[in-house]
Amino acid sequence: MYPGDLKYSEKHEWVRVEGKIATVGITSFAQEQLGAIVGVGLPEEGSKVEKHGALADLDSMKTADQVFSPVSGKIVKVNRALEERPELINDDPYGEGWVAVIEMADPGELADLMNASEYEAFVAEEASKG
Fold first, then answer.
1. Three-state DSSP class for residue 12
2. Whole-angstrom Cα distance, residue 28 to residue 40?
């Protein structure tokens, strides 16, 4: 159900790692909970972000929420396509709907994230709590 090559946070972000580069987005579960995303506030390229710090703002038909960074580092790229087409997060959360690319300050922080099967169990447990 969730791509096996990604890492996942308890705040429902995913991370695709290539060396010291981490691409971050929100999971299909998160976008389903938010509903139709109608706006995205992206961070500035070149800015620093802390693990668990706010990375981006999301506005949906239901609510406003934030994307939190699962790792610390420098934002090297943001998905400008989301400014014109925020629905990409709903349509393709693991592909064209990515949010930002971070050059990680400490790749060791990845050890705190879940693999796909752990995340699936985490989501099931959260769902059972209602």
1. coil
2. 16
- pTM of the predicted model as reported, rounded to 2 decimal places: 0.96
CA distances from 100 to 79, 97, 106, 128 (A): 6, 10, 17, 31
103-127 pLDDT tens trace: 999 999 999 999 999 999 999 998 8
Q: 118: domain CATH number?
A: 2.40.50.100
pLDDT at position 8:
98
Residue indicated by tokens 């991370």: 15
From residue 53, alpha-carbon distances to 71, 87, 108 in Å are 9, 23, 17
The reply to whether 2 falls in a domain is: no
* Tokens matching residue 2: 């969730």
> Residue 43: inside a domain, yes or no?
yes
- Percent of the chain at pLDDT > 70 equals 99
DSSP string for residues in 36-93: SEEEEEPPPTT-EE-TTSEEEEEEESS-EEEEE-SS-EEEEEE-THHHH-TTHHHH-T
User: Rounded to an integer, what distance in angstroms lies between the CA atom of residue 102 and that of residue 80?
Assistant: 15
